[in-house]
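Bug report (template v2)

What were you trying to do?
Predict the complex of my protein with beta-D-fucopyranose.

What happened?
Run completed; filing so the output is reviewed.

Input:
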Amino acid sequence: MSSQNHNNARFPDGFRWGAATSSYQIEGAVREGGRGQSIWDTFSHTPGKTVNGDTGDIAVDHYHRWHQDVAMMRELDLQAYRFSIAWPRIIPEGVGRVNQEGLDFYDRLVDGLLEAGIVPWATLYHWDLPQALGDQDGLKNRDIADAFEAYVGAVTDRLGDRVKKWITINEPFVAGFIGYWWGMHAPGETSRAAGLAAVHNLLRMHGKGVDVVRERVPDARVGITLNLTSVYTLGDSEADEDEVRRDDGLSNRWFLDPVFKGSYPEDMVEEFGDDMPEVHPGDMELMSRETDFLGVNYYMPSYVKAGVENAFFDPSLAPDYERTATGWLVEPRGLKDLLVRIDQDYGPEEIYITENGAAFDDDRPVDGRVHDPRRLAYYHGHLGACHDAIGQGVPLKGYFAWSLMDNFEWSEGYSKRFGIVYVDYSTQERTPKDTARWYANVIRENAIQPEDARGT
Ligand code: FCB
């Protein structure tokens, strides 16, 4: 469907509009407020792990500038803000002593958001594991689930009277597979068995998190955020189709099946063979605790072909598609197909897009403006996909842009800008990009705006 057709397309009343960030990517102040070290401090300080050796030491200094950032969110008319809580600020050694100063920080942030009329959505784990736990086998250690349980208890005890939307884990695929199997994220291990063990424990942590939130915050809504994709092939052989099954198994079903069906997909269990983690009695029941919503992070489709490794990064497989600065394909249809499929195969009560967005190389602000037409077109197209999915009966209830502002993009450091707000890293000055101004109009109208409606 051409983008034109979505102009002025209205969303259902009560649809929620927000933006997302995560602690290590924005806070900085890594040695302040009693914060302990995280595995991302260690990893980013290890030579060769991030572009330019960038670290989150300062990031966008949100720890000191949160007040101003909340004011900016208010100006953009955001209705919801998804942030994450840094475990090492709350329990610096991973287990044991609770650091009240860490809780105080999020306490003030939550009050600030509520005063601004913005609904806080808290993610409990967005990858900054306390290093003390990293030193004890990190996510591979089954005891991590008990440590997480205690941490979630401390957080919900303090914030649960005001925070009612909770996300247990962000993207177990990335934290587990990219961190422990492919080694591009902290802690940088490269073993398939380690990746599978990490994911297994992340899903157990999710279940424990759900239990704690339910117990401490009876009126809470709780769910998990998965990064998911639509898998296609441009090939036409049986082997190509089989590759679609495999990639879907690895990217989607490995996570959706345990959470919604309480089992791992058989075809993949067979493929993983001896690398499979030990499944203890009760594990699958824990992973499949009832949730109130599914958070979906979607950025790009996956195109695969038999015999080609990491096919979605191979431009020759999908030559006609536009790519972002991270090399990711721009294909809104992938989001619509994904939402329809999740609804059909898994039937979550509600779905929220908890991340969607794109990195492009922005020019520096001129006269307070940053023109980012390609990012704006990306949002226009993907909101169209959301609108189409709702039209097909998908219970999509809200959308969070990734990200509120440019920030530390993990192994890409500061080289990739995902913000709808531009950050000058030398002055920390924030400037809303055209996309942010346009998005504010989308929110005000609850409808997709034409691409040239960039606000004032
Ligand atoms: C997701 C992460 C998020 C951000 C975006 C671009 O995988 O959850 O922190 O880095 O990608």
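What did the reviewer find?
Residues 192-216 form the longest helix (25 residues). The pocket of beta-D-fucopyranose is lined by residues 22, 25, 170-171, 174, 227, 297, 355, 402, 409-410, 418 (CB under 6 Å).
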